[in-house]
Every structure is written in C-alpha cells, then in structure tokens.
C-alpha cells in the first residue's frame, strides 16, 4: 500500500475506534468506572485525550493491521490487535496499580480486558476496511 492508502485507512479507522470505545466508556462501562475510580476523576483534558487516541490508532495500524494486510490474514489482525491492546492497557493499568494510592485491582483487570477486546476489534474492522477499499 502507498502512504496515501495508509492515510485513508487511518482516517477510516478513526470512527471505528471511537464508535466502539464510546459504546464502552459512554454506556456499558460508565457506571463501573464512576463507582470504582470516580474519586480520582476530574474534567477531561480533551487535547491530551485526542492526541492519545490519534497516536494509539496509528499504533493499531502500524503494529497490527499493516502486518495482517501484508500477510493477507484476518487472524493476524485479530491476534496482533488484541496483543497490542493487552500490552498497552496493561502498561497503563499496572503502572496505575503500582503508583496510585487506592487504584482498584478490579479496574486493572477490567480495563486490560477492555483494551484487548477494543484493540482486537478495531484492528479487525480496519483490516476489513483496508482489504475491501484499498487493496
């Protein structure tokens, strides 16, 4: 794929990521996070959040979707996406568990599982988008 095709794939992946993550954060997991870590939450720093999301989505494309498209393997997209999510979310959550007083162990487990599912799902959608519209 050309750099322009990767840019298109990136732009198509952004809404897929946000739709899936909003379902979790805004609906399914919202009350869970408020109950578990509401005492730590403040106003959202949207600049930091947007930068994180844009970088994270680039990581999904680079480390999961690109190798899967090159191999022509949906399974590789799912596996590499899930692994990328697992390691990224584990880094965040285990660091919080190690350094933030009263960080709940349950949040660590649930959030790592969510990151694994989210990223595997987004990598899968992105793989299909790339395979369908760009290859």
Explain what you see.
85% of the residues lie in helices and 0% in strands. It has 135 residues and is mainly α. It has one domain.
- SSE pattern: HHHHH
What would you call the structural class? mainly alpha
Mean pLDDT: 98
Total strands: the figure is 0
| Percent range for β-strand residues | under 5%
Secondary-structure map with pairings?
Elements: H1 3-28, H2 30-37, H3 46-71, H4 74-99, H5 105-133
Name a few traits of the molecule.
0% strand, 5 helices, 135 residues, 85% helix, elongated, mainly alpha
Briefly summarize what is shown:
By secondary structure, the protein is an all-alpha fold.
């Amino acid at each position: 794929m050309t750099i322009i095709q990767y840019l298109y794939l990136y732009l198509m992946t952004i809404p897929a990521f946000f739709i899936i993550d909003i379902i979790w954060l805004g609906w399914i997991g919202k009350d869970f996070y408020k109950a578990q870590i509401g005492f730590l939450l403040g106003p959202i720093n949207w600049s930091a959040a947007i930068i994180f999301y844009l970088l994270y989505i680039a990581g999904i494309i680079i480390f999961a979707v690109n190798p899967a498209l090159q191999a022509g393997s949906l399974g590789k997209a799912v596996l590499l996406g899930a692994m990328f999510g697992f390691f990224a979310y584990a880094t965040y959550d285990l660091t919080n568990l190690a350094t933030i007083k009263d960080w709940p162990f349950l949040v660590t487990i649930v959030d790592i599982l969510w990151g694994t599912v989210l990223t595997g799902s987004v990598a899968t959608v992105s793989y299909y988008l790339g395979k369908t519209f760009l290859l």
